[in-house]
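Limitations

Structures in this collection are predictions, not experimental determinations, and the ligand pose is part of the prediction. Treat each record accordingly. The example that follows, with NAI as the small molecule, is included so readers can see exactly what is and is not provided: the inputs are given verbatim, and the output is the predicted complex.
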Amino acid sequence: MNMWNSPEFDAHEQVCFFTDEATGLRSIVAIHSTALGPAAGGTRFKAYSNEMEALEDALRLSRAMSYKSALAGLPLGGGKAVIIGDPGKLKSRELLHAYGRYIDRIGQTFATGEDVGMSVADMDTVREVTPYVGGTSVGAGDPSIHTATGVVHGLRAVLKHQFDREDFRGIKVAIQGLGAVGRRVAERLKDAGAQLVVADIREDAVQRACKELGAEALPVDQIHKAAVDIYSPCALGGVITTQTARQIKARAVAGAANNQLVNAEAGLALMQLGILFAPDYVINAGGIISGLEAALRMPGRKTAQLKPLAEQLAGIHDRLCEIFARSARERRPPEVIAEQMARELIGR
Ligand code: NAI
Ligand code: PHE
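Predicted complex:
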């Protein structure tokens, strides 16, 4: 394993490896930047096929967190944690406590919250042994609610820029993943008059969406090809490659999943095909915006006058409008513009 040679390594400030033999815990915490404040980012509990894959996920996701917080105007840096293993088999109260004690040991440099494989209840358990945990049942509560709100604000920016529309009536949206965020996005879009096409590996979630939201179901390997206006990836990352980009019929890609583009070429392909891409770390910032209270408790943080939560979430719309406008003017993909803006903010 050579971290410094990895394409995902971007002068990360600190990377920690933690092991607890008694509970089977193996965890990696990557801290990309603390330039704007203590690093914050979720904990992903996943059955990685090997340690390098886990390390690279932590490196990639932590850099995205630096960009996410910087562009959301938060006084936070970027970090991310991964726990290696199948959460269904490995997760225990003891393991979460062992993990929490390590988070406590890093202290004041990193605060965490949920990500794929971790629930609000899990974060409550971690919180029993360390204060550096957000997204618990106290405070703003389940971050996925706020992430969904932010995604819908972002979708309105997409509507305006790409469809010259202010409302969702008659707009067809394909939602990939009906989990905590995707299901809520689906409900809100339905209420706003959109037509839904959905896919999930959980058949029960699909059936519910068809029954309760009048959605049309598609197989999971077909959803990105749906004949819709907007394709909204709300499951896992890595869904846009140069190949899948060519199969997309939607005129925009905008959803909650982290790291949707496999590489820069995939983003370029979308632009060349006239498909508008909403950079994921801009549109999905609602979770970190709502869950940042743990990081704000840390001494040494920069004190910033933060706007009320609802106003910050609404800001996602304006930020995306600005990025889309610059992208059109400069003829460069939105994610390139967003990355440049974020790197300027963190002094890289
Ligand atoms: P979740 O685990 O609740 O939901 C994910 C859903 O995707 C599940 O229903 C799962 O069955 C489904 N799924 C998995 N593989 C699939 C496939 N191949 N095709 C279709 N569906 C599939 O996760 P959550 O919290 O809704 O997050 C979704 C995405 O948004 C993740 O990428 C996460 O990193 C990202 N995100 C979540 C935030 C939050 O506040 N929860 C904040 C920012 C980003
Ligand atoms: N998982 C969230 C994201 O990817 C991060 C998060 C951090 C959520 C802290 C809640 C609390 O943006």
